[in-house]
Design goal:
By secondary structure, the protein is α/β, with parallel strands linked by helices. About 50% of the residues lie in helices and about 15% in strands.
Length: about 250
C-alpha cells in the first residue's frame, strides 16, 4: 500500500528523480524546494503518469516554512512516513578563502535543514510505528574534498546524524540510512561545478566507466523505502560507480 513521502530539493536533479520514482512506486509525494515553479513541473509529470503529488515551496532551514509545507502535505494526503532529505548546497572555494558566512550557510542548509525537516516529520512516523528516512549525503564526506572543506564537513555531519538517529529510532519501526552520491551529472551542483573534461576523465577512470545519473540514486532510495528493507538501518549505501569502495 502506498505511503506519503516528502522529498526535499525535489525541483531538479536527484530530488526530482527520487520524487518521480517514489510516485511510480505508488506513494503520494510532497515535492519540496525553494523553486516552487520547478516543483509544479515535477508534480505535473507525476500526475500525468497517474500518480499523486503536491508542490511545496519552502527553505529547509526555515522551521516555520517547513512546518507549513508539511501541514499542507498532511492535509492533502495524510501522515508523512517516508522522508528523503536531499536539499543542499555546494560551493567550490579554497579553504583559505572561506568566510564565516560561507561556513555558516553551508551548515545552515545541509546540516541544520536536514535536522529541521526530520524532526518535523518524525511525529507522523512515531505515531504510525513505521518510517523510512533517507539522507542524501556525499562521497566527498567519505574521501574529503580539497575545494569543498565546508561542504564535505557538513555532509559528514549528515552521515553521523544518520547513524545516531538509526539507533534512536530503530525500536520505533523507523529506519534511517544515507546515500552518498559520487559524480552524478544532471544536477544543479554538477552543472555549476563540473566541466566536460572532468566528465571524460571520470568516464575513463571510475570502475564502472561512466558517471552517474539521478536515477541511479533514486533506485537506491526506492529500495531503502521498501517494507522489505526493514532490516537495513544506520547504513551508508554508496552509489558512486566505485569511487569509494569498502
Amino acid at each position: 500500500m502506498g505511503k506519503v513521502a516528502l522529498v526535499t530539493g525535489a525541483a531538479a536533479g536527484i530530488g526530482r528523480a527520487c520524487a518521480l520514482r517514489l510516485a511510480k512506486d505508488g506513494h503520494a509525494v510532497g515535492v519540496l524546494d525553494l523553486d516552487l515553479a520547478g516543483c509544479e513541473k515535477v508534480v505535473a509529470g507525476i500526475e500525468a503518469a497517474g500518480g499523486k503529488a503536491i508542490a511545496l515551496g519552502a527553505s529547509i532551514a526555515n522551521r516555520t516554512q517547513v512546518q507549513t509545507a508539511v501541514d499542507q502535505l498532511r492535509a492533502a494526503f495524510g501522515p508523512v512516513t517516508i522522508l528523503v532529505n536531499n536539499a543542499g548546497i555546494s560551493i567550490y572555494v579554497d579553504f583559505e578563502d572561506l568566510t564565516d558566512e560561507m561556513w555558516d550557510q553551508m551548515f545552515e542548509i545541509n546540516t541544520k535543514g536536514t535536522f529541521i525537516v526530520t524532526q518535523i516529520c518524525l511525529r507522523d512516523m512515531k505515531a504510525a510505528g513505521w518510517g523510512r528516512i533517507v539522507n542524501i549525503s556525499s562521497s566527498s564526506a567519505q574521501t574529503g574534498s580539497i575545494p569543498q572543506v565546508h561542504y564535505s564537513a557538513s555532509k559528514g555531519a549528515v552521515i553521523t546524524m544518520t547513524r545516531s538517529l538509526a539507533q534512536a529510532l530503530g525500536p520505533m519501526g523507523i529506519t534511517v540510512n544515507n546515500i552518498p552520491p559520487g559524480s552524478v551529472m544532471g544536477t544543479i551542483m554538477s552543472e555549476a561545478n563540473v566541466d566536460r573534461g572532468t566528465v571524460e576523465t571520470l568516464n575513463e577512470t571510475l570502475p564502472v566507466r561512466r558517471v552517474g545519473v539521478p536515477d541511479d540514486i533514486a533506485n537506491a532510495c526506492a529500495w531503502l523505502c521498501l517494507e522489505e528493507s526493514s532490516y537495513v538501518t544506520g547504513q551508508t549505501i554508496g552509489v558512486n560507480g566505485g569511487r569509494v569502495v569498502s
